[in-house]
Amino acid sequence: MILETLSVFPELFGPYMGASIMGRAQRSGVFSFEAHDLRDWTHDRHRTVDDAPFGGGQGMLMKPEPIFEALDDLCSRPPARPHVVFFSPCGERFCQRTAERLSRHERLLFVCGRYEGTDERVYSLADDVLSIGDYVLTGGELAALVVMDSVVRLLPGALGDEMSAVDESFSAAGLLEYAQYTRPASYRGMDVPEVLLSGDHARVDAWRRASAIERTARWRPDLIESADLTAEERARALELAERGEGD
What we know:
Elements: E1 2-7, H1 14-17, H2 20-27, E2 32-37, E3 50-51, E4 61-62, H3 64-75, E5 83-93, H4 96-102, E6 107-111, E7 128-131, H5 141-152, H6 164-167, E8 186-187, E9 190-191, H7 201-219, H8 231-243
């Protein structure tokens, strides 16, 4: 996969994309990454990318010309036209299913806004407009990093254990991930559930399934309706959610 960003602060991406899982995956050829500087497509000596909004108002808006010219250029480059993603509070709420859909594209290009917003006309260039939550950030760079991290984890070879992404929250039947423990088995009066020490894989699997349902009912009851549950599991989850209980 090819990942690219278009931003007025391309230097923000290097440290994160070169570290930990992202760095290892990039070095092993799972994906490639390039951060483009939007100012490279400006034509004045100040490399201006923003201007005052028509009709007045606070702050500055990102101008359409550099973004249109940048995408004209970048989208014409081989090997394939990128799937272009913008970020906006008006966009589709980003979730694991969106990450899975994006992971199937050969090339992704994330356009990162700044200032008080972006000229509305640039959204005509978008294949996707996403929001990572109902709050305001100073720019789209953090949103792009969130989405890229989520997408890269799904690529074959990115994680050491290929089942890790399958078992994670929101991937396994639409539930939160089950509770997990490590050594010591007892700490400050809190003990690891006995079943996890039993070595009985069938019992462990059953416990993990129940734990995932209970954690979802407690922390994210809104997920129960769309989760892949049996009738008995759904009834149990709804009962726990109504009581505000979980593991």
